[in-house]
Amino acid sequence: MQRAVLIMLVAMSLIPVGDSAGKILTSGLGVEPVFVAWSRFALGTVLVLPFLPKGSFALLGNWRIWVRATMLCCGITCIQFALRTVDIATVFAAFFIGPMFSYVLATLFLREHVTVLRSVLILLGFGGVLLVVRPGTGGDADVLWAVAAGLFYGAFLTMSRWLSHLGKPLSLTFTQLAISMFLLLPFGLTHLPEASLPIASMTLASALFSMLGNLLLLFAYGLAPATRLAPLVYFQLIAAVLLGWVLFNTLPDAFTWAGLALIIGAGLASTRLR
């Protein structure tokens, strides 16, 4: 269990590192967000190809696999637009509307069990997201890109539960990367940045750290029960705050701190329920 926890903590740190590299590309180096999203999927596809289980390509013939990948494609693209102007901690806090939306979708479409207490905690977490976004009160409008990303990701999570029986985790990871790369190909190629060492290194870092984080996440879930590891997902928010402070010299304001506390508190309490 200790090994799984350590791997999970590393995974939850690497994913925000990948997004920090993406933020440097879009906000500091002038790279278009759609190129960052496409390059992440393209490089990720190349990285997983040598490790594919047999039968992975056959999954590409299933229309449900394409819908699932499209949800992730839209989510990652939206989050790159958010990172262009919004600090990374705020983006991640707004993005965490995803698990809450997934709960609603799973209740409606997968007929998963609903409890009053869990529903109350979901509403509290949603209140935390509202504190971060602050619609109509002068907050950064670009944070709505992060909310959209979270909604797409919530749909992706629900579809992942629905389709988990179709293939091994690495096979499903390959399909979401390859399909997203294909869908964004015209946009990626028409928004190629100038060739430079900083852009190349940050593009590689964005893809590599995100890929490593998600692969380690799958590996951790193979070593320990999901219910034991689920609370550690919220370590992403802590890592995002630290990275924002170290790399961009930004810290959340009071409303965002309150929102973060609500999101993490409600999320941790939800994972303790049976």
From TrEMBL:
Subcellular location: Membrane
Family annotation (InterPro entries): EamA_dom, EmrE-like
Annotated transmembrane regions: 36-53, 65-83, 89-110, 117-137, 143-163, 170-189, 195-217, 229-248, 254-273
Superkingdom of the organism of origin: Bacteria
Coiled coil: none
Keywords: Membrane, Transmembrane, Transmembrane helix
Domain EamA: 4-133, 143-266
Main location, first listed in the record: membrane
A GO CC annotation given for this chain: membrane
Pfam families: EamA
Membrane topology: Multi-pass membrane protein
PANTHER family listed in its UniProt record: ACYL-MALONYL CONDENSING ENZYME-RELATED (PTHR22911), SOLUTE CARRIER FAMILY 35 MEMBER G1 (PTHR22911:SF6)
UniProt record similarity statement: Belongs to the drug/metabolite transporter (DMT) superfamily. 10 TMS drug/metabolite exporter (DME) (TC 2.A.7.3) family.
Protein name per Swiss-Prot or TrEMBL: Membrane protein
